[in-house]
Amino acid sequence: MQIEALTKRLRQFADDRDWDQFHAPKNLSMALIVEAAELAEHFQWMSEQQSSELSAEKLKEVSYELADVFIYCLRLADKLGVDLPKAVDEKIVINEKKYPADKVRGSSKKYTEYE
């Protein structure tokens, strides 16, 4: 499903429940943080290897938390009038300049550390 169709479906979902009144950008951003924390909670105390080898049941739970994060990102972008695919494309271009592959390959340093 395309981003625009998902956005419309989520807008309708909120409208059908009269929840738009609660979906101010401030509230959506806080809900997004809560869902991101719930996602992180699934990985808390795991080793790096364990986090890459989730059971089918755990992966399903994680997928729903990822969906919640994505839903709030879409709702927030919709409420603010942000063209999310365009913003992502622009951000990738910015990151390509900040992190040129020939300079950062294999390094986890922040761009301010290698310039």
| Second rung of CATH, namely the architecture of the largest domain | Orthogonal Bundle
Top CATH class of the largest domain: Mainly Alpha
Biggest β-sheet description: none
Amino- and carboxy-terminal Cα gap: 40 Å
Strand percent estimate: under 5%
Number of helices in the DSSP assignment: 7
Q: How many β-strand stretches?
A: 0
- Give the integer mean of the pLDDT values: 95
Could you state the order of secondary-structure elements as H and E? HHHHHHH
Domain count, please report it. Answer: 2
The structure class reads: mainly alpha
Can you tell me about this structure?
The protein has helices at 3-16, 25-43, 48-52, 56-80, 84-98, 101-104, 111-114. Helix 1 (3-16) packs across helix 4 and helix 2 packs antiparallel against helix 4 (56-80). It has two domains: 3-82, MazG-like (Helix Hairpins), CATH 1.10.287; 83-115, no CATH class. The protein has 115 residues and is an all-alpha fold. The model has no long low-confidence stretch (mean pLDDT 95). 75% of the residues lie in helices and 0% in strands.
Descriptive keywords:
115 residues, mainly alpha, Helix Hairpins, 7 helices
SSE blueprint and pairings:
Layout: H1 3-16, H2 25-43, H3 48-52, H4 56-80, H5 84-98, H6 101-104, H7 111-114
Brief digest:
The protein is mainly alpha-helical and 115 residues long. Helix content is 75%, strand content 0%. The longest helix has 25 residues, at 56-80.
